[in-house]
Design brief:
11% helix, twelve-stranded antiparallel beta barrel, disordered N terminus, 1 helix, 12 strands
Length: 237
């Protein structure tokens, strides 16, 4: 009887340890990041990024962007929200990362409606990062296509290119270009909402957190501000 009880306890402990190990491995395959961003053209937004490994070099990715600029809604209501998912690919021995995604916008920013519209827009995008230890490069393109226009809709195109040099593991600097503009409008002529061209400095901490500050002239002639700034943090949780 004692041997049977001892055997049962041993099997139970092994099962618990195995379950705990499997749970730990599953948790290690999933990561989350909070990325607060503020720039002088579009205001403040919080980005939530998630990634789950489905193959050694392929991840399922998902994201949400919470825009809090009052002009994107109705005096703080009906604010623009982005949600989406994609696939992340690790290439070139870990130096290159590509992440095409498909998202949807919710609110009234693109539809021109009087109040919130679910899936008012579709947002295909692609994000790229390259880092070989000496040179870093980031690029992004997203197309905001209105789906539920009500006579005053618009489509937007957002893109940025950020090449830089790593002075050390914790510090880098380089050039910064970002543009957000209308590609189509129901009324009037499409125009740039902002177009930034300047430089950036970036610091990276040992825990994976990094901060980047960019500033310079606003080169678009269609805007009222001649200068810009953008600060961004990357915080794994």
């Amino acid at each position: 009887m004692k041997k049977t009880i001892a055997l049962i306890i041993t099997v139970a402990l092994i099962s618990i340890e195995s379950f705990a190990q499997e749970k730990k491995e599953t948790e290690n395959k999933t990561s989350f990041v909070i990325m607060p961003i503020h720039n002088s053209g579009a205001g403040f937004n919080n980005v939530f990024l998630g990634s789950h490994q489905i193959k050694p070099k392929t991840n399922l990715t998902f994201y949400s962007v919470f825009w809090v600029n009052p002009s994107f809604g109705n005096q703080g209501k009906d604010l623009f929200l982005e949600t989406g998912a994609g696939l992340g690919f690790v290439l070139d021995e870990g130096k290159l990362y590509l992440n095409p995604s498909l998202g949807f916008g919710h609110g009234k920013l693109l539809s021109g409606a009087a109040e919130t519209r679910l899936a008012e827009s579709v947002i295909p995008s692609i994000f790229m990062v390259y880092n070989n230890g000496m040179f870093e490069f980031e690029a992004y393109t997203a197309y905001y296509k209105s789906l539920r226009g009500e006579g005053n809709s618009q489509d937007l195109l957002l893109n940025w290119v950020i090449p830089g040099i790593k002075v050390s593991k914790k510090f880098s600097f380089g050039a910064f270009y970002e543009r957000l503009g209308q590609s189509r409008v129901d009324n009037g002529t499409p125009k740039a909402l902002y177009e930034f061209l300047g430089g950036y400095v970036k610091t990276t901490l040992n825990n994976g957190v990094w901060f980047r500050f960019a500033a310079g002239p606003n080169i678009s002639n269609e805007l009222n501000s001649k200068e810009f700034y953008k600060i961004q943090a990357f915080i794994p949780i």
